[in-house]
Design a protein that fits this description.
This protein has about 325 residues and is mostly helical. The chain is built from 14 helices and no strands. Helix 10 packs antiparallel against helix 14.
Length: about 325
């Protein structure tokens, strides 16, 4: 099999570029919009300080640079690809035992090839971060945040050095894993401007909740679709408890979204009610149809949450 064809098959099965690309763009777009919503206040204060301490001339008005979406998307895409590659290494033995049909266990792509791809991702990500500097005071912040992101990613890939404990406590593992998203959000925010951490708190909480919802929704299944050796949330917690947990997270997310989008509270309430009704349907029917609807409604909801940040501009 030729080089292009085998990588095309791999991405189709394990990392669909179009599907993941849209999701990653939604994240980047929301970070970009929120940061440009809060940045003008920070910008004005910093420019006043610079004018008093230097003789340089600075624009008095903050302007939005939409071209920053390009490097932000590139580094975010590479980070998600790196997560997928590391998961291939972590799950290799389990996949060989329970899921030999996947690309790596069946020999389509080797771990060595994935390792080379991982190194290429790191080089490109660092290069983009180094050349796409932003902010008036601390361009080095981007590099520091990238190193923090890589550091946490490394610890996560090692099972936080307590793999046996983590493997027995699924929710605790998710609690730790999803902390990577707020770190990545801060890293992406640094491409826009010198963002104030305190002002980012609502969005950081929102991104963390979304990450939880994505993780749980993709592993919510009816009983006949459960696979041996696959830890889904419905298998571990039961359909009712897993769906209730998902619903609780979605309700909290709606509250945070309502706080950020103060003028669109009614729309947010209507949206979350529709999602919760579908979840109730899954708890009641516990069918394959409602399992798929539960996952689909959660995914549609988070897309709407992310893209709704465009209303801030």
């Amino acid at each position: 099999m030729n080089f292009i064809k085998k990588w095309y098959i791999y991405q189709k099965e394990r990392f669909p570029i179009l599907k993941y690309g849209i999701y990653i763009f939604a994240i980047v777009f929301s970070v970009f919009c929120y940061c440009n919503y809060i940045a003008p206040k920070i910008y004005i204060n910093q420019i006043e300080i610079l004018k008093r301490t230097t003789n340089s001339i600075y624009p008095s008005k903050y302007t939005i640079d939409y071209f920053k979406l390009i490097p932000m998307f590139c580094v975010a895409f590479l980070q998600f690809l790196m997560v997928r590659i590391v998961d291939e290494f972590k799950d290799y033995e389990e996949d060989c035992k329970y899921r030999p049909y996947r690309p790596v266990p069946r020999g389509l792509i080797t771990l060595k090839e994935l390792k080379i791809l991982f190194i290429i991702c790191i080089i490109i990500q660092f290069f983009i971060t180094f050349i796409c500097k932003a902010g008036a005071f601390a361009p080095i912040t981007q590099i520091v945040l990238l190193l923090v992101l890589w550091g946490y990613f490394f610890i996560m890939s090692k099972g936080y050095f307590m793999k046996k404990f983590i493997d027995k406590h699924l929710l605790f593992e998710v609690f730790l894993d999803e902390l990577m998203m707020p770190i990545m959000v801060m890293y992406l925010a640094s491409f826009v401007y010198d963002i104030n951490l305190l002002m980012m708190v609502p969005f950081l909480i929102m991104s963390y909740l979304v990450s939880w919802i994505v993780e749980i929704a993709r592993k919510v299944r009816c009983k006949e679709d459960e696979e041996k050796g696959v830890r889904t949330y419905t298998a571990v917690l039961g359909i009712k408890n897993a769906t209730l947990l998902l619903s609780a997270l979605e309700v909290v997310l709606a509250c945070i979204q309502g706080i950020i989008l103060k003028n669109y509270t009614i729309s947010v309430i209507c949206l979350i009610l529709a999602v919760i009704l579908i979840n109730i349907g899954f708890i009641t029917k516990q069918s394959r149809k409602f399992a798929k609807l539960t996952e689909l409604s959660a995914n549609i909801y988070i897309f709407l949450v992310y893209f709704s940040m465009g209303l801030l501009l």
